Amino acid sequence: MTITMEKPIMRASSFAFVKEAAAEKEKIKVSNLNLYYGEKQALYNVSLDIQQKEVTALIGPSGCGKSTFLRTLNRMNDLIDGVKINGDIVIDDENIYRSNDVIKLRTKVGMVFQKPNLFPMSIYDNVAYGPRMQGIKNKKVLNQIVEDSLRGAAIWDEVKDRLKSSALGLSGGQQQRVCIARAIAMKPDVILMDEPTSALDPISTLKVEELIAQLKENYTIVIVTHNMQQAARISDKTAFFLNGEIVEYDKTDVIFSNPTDKRTEDYISGRFG
Ligand SMILES: Nc1ncnc2c1ncn2[C@@H]1O[C@H](COP(=O)(O)OP(=O)(O)OP(=O)(O)O)[C@@H](O)[C@H]1O
Ligand SMILES: [Mg+2]
Predict the structure, then answer these.
(1) Is 70 near ligand 1, meaning CB less than 6 Å away?
(2) Whose alpha carbon is nearest atom 4 of ligand 1?
(3) How much distance in Å is there from the Cα of 66 to the middle of ligand 2?
(4) What is the pTM of this model?
(5) Could you tell me if residue 250 is left (phi over 0), alpha (psi between -120 and 50 degrees) or otherwise beta?
(6) Any idea what the CATH number is for the domain that residue 92 is in?
């Protein structure tokens, strides 16, 4: 007999990062997605399903549409003038382009960028920023969210004695983990990461990679990376993009050991890109 757990009812008021039991389940379903910047088409008929609590890597040469695609998942392209999108993206049975609640969407689908983009304020205030915007004022509650989020981002021990110091005084690698904490503080289901380690040294990169491996117990992660070893190390599935199309999408070990398409093979073996 299989027992399926409902989402815990306590979730809205609980600050523990408890989520339902992991199961192979589609979290995001993208079908026939086309995106245009003005006249220029940047995505062509992109279809893929992203599994819950997996790490999905997006790889491909510069300009192939990885960031563009990633941004469609929380409607960040809406902020760019002249963007037209057609096709469907369904997250948890809701078509995100048919709903107008973009704030709710961006709470559910958080984002971490290439360069750490902390606000010029304290570490504490950076992490508490989103929850405060949501109207949480209770100091105890905020303290708990900040601590849980920083712990969740594997940076608590390094910053717990300097929470009131400027976040900009941290190293790049520490700042990036605080950015991840800031995303976690919103209690997202999905975390999008656009080359989150490309500005980091190898040790910080390793820390962020270890963190991603932990985060996938609770979150669905979609990550753009130019680093093939990184994709191979941390992801469950990999999508190879070329000229705005998905050439191949499969389990990561298949993509890297036995790809079907010659273009995938050429790319992963470094013959172009
Ligand atoms: N705001 C924009 N306005 C117009 N064209 C854009 C815009 N952003 C991206 N593009 C174009 O869309 C295409 C895809 O760009 P995108 O940034 O998604 O590529 P990418 O795969 O993330 O590349 P990189 O690996 O260099 O980050 C490119 O041709 C790019 O020039
Ligand atoms: Mg990009």
Answers:
(1) no
(2) 37
(3) 6
(4) 0.89
(5) beta
(6) 3.40.50.300
